[in-house]
């Protein structure tokens, strides 16, 4: 017991205990509020519809608009729809090919083509896979009913004009009905193409792994450098220490991103971008994470680690790796646009799966880094003014 009491006297022990409780409380509250009612927002997912066929394609579109629980947008060409999907504005594209009606009329196998973007959140890909199966089933049911009606109408009309005997007409009509009922229900087949695909389950976990590893590493690095900086405050100026931290952060970002490239090579992880571009992007990711975590410890001191824990949890939820951002509550969708993990995830989808360009996400990471550094610098300015004011008051005490 004496040893326990002795340990509790140290501030580091108390901070460690508080941190453990904070992790549990923060993660539980954020994840439960972010994912609450998430299935109710599946209608925020978007699919593109391209009709190259004509009449039957229009009827299918009308049916899907009524029955599919997603935001469906029509495109004039498959190329335009795919471009939107590569920009991650669509989760799936549906194509009704130009020979669809002809295949139905000639009793040949007709196909609906689905293009599902693999550079997307895991849940979105699963939902779209299931949606493709359900859409094909729905279309088959409608096509089956349509073919039954057409055959019965045509058969009845021809029998009335060609067969004089009413009894014979009834017998032949019954035979036609049996033939109609024996029609193949699964006239339409689905053809699913996974665009921006990458082989292997492990590869799909790279975006999440990199966000988690990079941000947690940045948290620990910022905390320890801040402790070291506090020890130097009596021998070095604030701006000298701040500049040194900036150089350390930049150097660490360059080296850590190089290590990332080497690890990806060792584990045979292929990327769709050039090695140089991937290295620069990862440098921006690390630097933005370090700048953000550093900002909190500069502004709030040791207490800034609580904010880092909060933002770790928020970024894991809102980055769009596990769950599409559009399925989150509006508050989390809004805040995700201001956090670096969102653009780190987008960039890693591009690196691993391909699609859009990296430049947009890299620019936003730089902007976030600049803003966090500016906030930290402003805090140092106010700290300096407060210190100068305290010195003046000490030299010239009131009264």
TrEMBL record:
GO molecular function terms listed in the Swiss-Prot or TrEMBL record: ABC-type transporter activity
Compartments reported by the entry: Membrane
InterPro entries: ABC2_TM, T7SS_ABC-Transporter
Keyword terms, alphabetized: Membrane, Transmembrane, Transmembrane helix
Top-level lineage group: Bacteria
Gene3D superfamilies the record matches: abc type-2 transporter like domain
Residue stretches spanning the membrane: 15-34, 201-225, 246-267, 279-299, 306-323, 364-382
Protein name: Putative phage infection (PIP) family protein YhgE
């Amino acid at each position: 017991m004496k040893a326990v009491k002795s340990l509790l006297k140290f501030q580091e022990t108390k901070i460690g205990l508080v941190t453990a409780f904070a992790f549990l409380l923060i993660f539980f509250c954020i994840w439960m509020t972010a994912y609450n009612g998430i299935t109710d927002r599946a209608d925020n997912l978007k699919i593109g519809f391209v009709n190259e066929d004509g009449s039957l394609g229009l009827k299918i579109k009308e049916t899907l608009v009524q029955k599919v629980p997603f935001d469906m947008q029509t495109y004039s060409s498959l190329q335009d729809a795919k471009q939107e999907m590569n920009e991650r504005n669509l989760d799936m594209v549906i194509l009704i090919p130009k020979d669809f009606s002809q295949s139905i009329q000639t009793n040949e196998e007709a196909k609906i083509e689905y293009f599902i973007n693999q550079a997307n959140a895991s849940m979105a890909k699963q939902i779209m896979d299931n949606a493709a199966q359900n859409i094909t089933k729905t279309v088959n049911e409608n096509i089956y009913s349509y073919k039954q009606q057409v055959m019965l109408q045509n058969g009845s009309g021809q029998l009335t004009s060609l067969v004089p005997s009413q009894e014979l007409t009834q017998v032949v009509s019954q035979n036609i009905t049996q033939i109609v009922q024996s029609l193949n229900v699964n006239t339409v087949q689905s053809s699913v193409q996974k665009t921006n695909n990458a082989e292997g389950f492990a590869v799909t976990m790279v975006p999440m792994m990199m966000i988690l590893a990079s941000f947690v590493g940045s948290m620990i690095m910022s905390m320890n450098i801040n402790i070291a900086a506090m020890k130097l405050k009596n021998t070095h100026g604030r701006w000298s220490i701040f500049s040194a931290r900036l150089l350390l952060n930049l150097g660490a970002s360059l080296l850590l991103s190089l290590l990332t490239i080497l690890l990806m090579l060792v584990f045979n992880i292929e990327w769709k971008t050039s090695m140089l571009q991937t290295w620069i992007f990862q440098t921006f990711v690390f630097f933005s994470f370090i700048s953000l975590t550093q900002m909190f410890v500069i502004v709030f001191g040791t207490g800034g680690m609580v904010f880092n824990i909060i933002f770790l949890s928020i970024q894991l939820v809102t980055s769009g790796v596990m769950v599409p951002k559009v399925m989150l509550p509006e508050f989390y969708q809004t805040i995700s646009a201001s956090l670096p993990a969102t653009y780190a995830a987008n960039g890693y989808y591009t690196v691993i799966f391909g699609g859009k360009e990296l430049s947009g996400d890299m620019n936003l990471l730089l902007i976030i880094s600049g803003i966090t550094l500016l906030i930290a610098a402003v805090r140092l300015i106010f700290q300096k003014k407060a210190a100068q004011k305290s010195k003046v008051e000490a030299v010239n005490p009131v009264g």
